[in-house]
Amino acid sequence: MLRYGAGAWCAKAVLQLVMPLTLNLDPHGEQLVAAHLRSGRYHSPEEVVTRALETLAEKEPPTVSTRTMTPAEAVADIRELRKGVTLGGLRIKDLINEGRKY
Q: Which long-range contacts (CB under 8 A, 24 or more apart) does 45-52 make?
């Protein structure tokens, strides 16, 4: 859903396997959306953005990895991502217990 508020167009859309998305357009983006709405060809900001994304996908198809990781590769990838990530001295059990208080 796109809405206009506080001087910016905002878009909320549900992406596949992702969370809702909010887009804030700069003044140029706002002008482009408004111009297409005024043309009468589109009836909502959602239509304008959807058409723009479809056109982009035709010109620059998104690349999606079709390779599937083995469980061992996934574990190695997770371990690599965790390097340097700490909880500042906290333990997971402490966080779980803290969550139970509320």
A: 45/2, 45/3, 45/4, 45/9, 45/11, 46/1, 46/2, 46/11, 46/13, 49/2, 49/11, 49/23
Residues 55 and 78 in one domain: no
Q: Which domain holds residue 86?
A: 71-100
Q: For the chain, where are the alpha helices, taking DSSP H only?
A: 27-38, 45-59, 71-82, 92-100
> Which tens digits make up the pLDDT trace of 51-64?
999 999 899 887 77
Residue 33 near residue 13, CB atoms below 8 Å: no
Distance set, CA 29 to CA 6, 40, 41, 54, 94 (Å): 15, 18, 17, 17, 46
* Whole-prediction pTM: 0.45
3-state secondary structure at position 69 = coil
